[in-house]
Design brief:
With about 240 residues, the chain is α/β, with parallel strands linked by helices. It folds into two domains: about 5-70, no CATH class; about 85-235, Zincin-like (2-Layer Sandwich), CATH 3.30.2010.10. About 35% of the residues lie in helices and about 25% in strands. Helix 3 (about 125-150) crosses helix 4 (about 190-205), helix 4 (about 190-205) crosses helix 5 (about 210-220) and helix 4 packs across helix 6 (about 225-235). The longest helix has 29 residues, at about 125-150.
């Protein structure tokens, strides 16, 4: 992926600055990031005029997304890996309690996340390894429930998925139906995890974000907008400009 460069689009009398990023892909993706930044991820040889024209056609949607983001609470503070700091797990804040021990690991007990490490320098690594393991287990469990729900609407999928840290997305789906999810989802409540899983499962039947896709998502999960809003309010992706 090439480094982003700033460009300007216009929607009526409103100017919309956006980041143009070139990437080895076949389609154009227009994103509104958590801080309100507009990003267009385009194929390497895409015509810049066409990218700007496509973005301007979506001007109303972009401005709506930015207005909604402006109403959300300020970004969550950076979390540190020391005793007493709080970290979110399945939607709830838990305090870390770090103890030096030969056998490393993490245990949830009495509202605390008890972290055993051989040396303090290993706290973050041990804790994040545990979070990823929990993400794999919980998402596998929720995927089974979501497959059953989606199946009532004609959506069939093996349920297989991979985990990958992503800076701007909770999940993704390829045209071939391969699903990838962000392990940071383990910080969200189960109802928000289900929203992300069902969002991507619906893409296996309707790949684009056309009206047919949202009609399907609305049938599968009628309260998806409320779940998405709660996810964005509680858990922030660590996007860095």
């Amino acid at each position: 992926m090439m480094d982003p460069c700033w460009r300007m689009a216009e929607y009526g009398l409103t100017r919309i600055p956006f980041q143009l990023v070139r990437h080895e892909r076949r389609t154009l993706s227009i994103q509104v990031l958590a801080d309100g930044t507009v990003r267009a991820v385009a194929p390497m040889l895409a015509d810049e005029y066409e990218v700007r024209r496509r973005l301007e056609r979506r001007g109303a949607w972009i401005l709506k997304q930015q207005r909604e983001l402006a109403t959300l609470p300020p970004p969550l503070p950076i979390r540190h890996y020391v005793s007493g700091e709080t970290h979110r797990y399945l939607g709830r804040q838990h305090r870390l309690r770090v103890q030096v021990a030969e056998d490393e690991g993490v245990r949830l007990t009495r509202g605390e996340l008890l972290v055993h490490v051989r040396t303090p320098e290993r706290i973050q690594r041990v804790f994040e390894t545990w979070l990823r393991q929990r993400a794999s287990a919980v998402l596998t469990e929720r995927m089974a429930a979501c497959q059953e729900r989606a199946g009532h609407f004609g959506i069939q999928h093996s349920g297989e998925f991979s985990l990958r840290r992503m800076t701007t997305r909770w999940g993704s789906c390829t045209r071939e139906g391969r699903l990838t999810f962000n392990p940071l989802l383990i910080q969200a409540p189960r109802e928000c995890i289900d929203y992300v899983l069902l969002h991507e499962l619906c893409h296996t039947a309707e790949f684009s974000h056309a009206p047919a896709y949202y009609a399907l998502l609305g049938r599968v999960l009628p309260d998806w907008k409320a779940r998405r809003a709660r996810l964005n309010r509680l858990v922030e992706l660590p996007y860095v400009n």
